[in-house]
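Please, structure for the following, as tokens.
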Amino acid sequence: MEMVDQVSTSERKPKFCPQCGTAIENEVKFCKKCGHALHASIESEPARPVQTNVQPKKTNRTAIAIILILIVAGIFIYNHWRDPLNRIEGTWYSPEWEGYMDIDVVGDDKLRITTYYEGEYEPDDIEMVNILSTNAEKIVTEIDEYTTGHFELKNSSTMYFYLEDEDGYSYDDVIRMVKK
């Protein structure tokens, strides 16, 4: 029987300097390339070179600032257009009535309503009315001591206007108006 010298696998693997990754011989005490002391720190895998110019990842602050500004602007615009007083202001036209209504918000509690008939340049009527209540879709105004005017906003370009007496009786004329 023949005896074969068994060499451990760790002796067959080349050894590398842990500092610079250079292959070294088994009996050497210092790396020939960088001079690192190798007494007990010989590794069987090469060391990965250390990158000295690696910069930490920076977040793009400009992009984050722009996103935040857009979010704040979006919230402002959404809330602005949800407010019925902002949505009602402007010129409204009624094909059935053949006339225009210019509506201006005056302060927080009044509307100035100027009405024109189609083809006329002089206003038919200018009224300053008190706002009694508002919600997201409706503004209730006091036309006189017995009558309230109701502006129901359906969307940004359509509303319905009708009058109601003090007993809650709604007049038959519901005027559809479109924004100009």
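Residues 13-49 form one domain. Residues 61-82 form the longest helix (22 residues).
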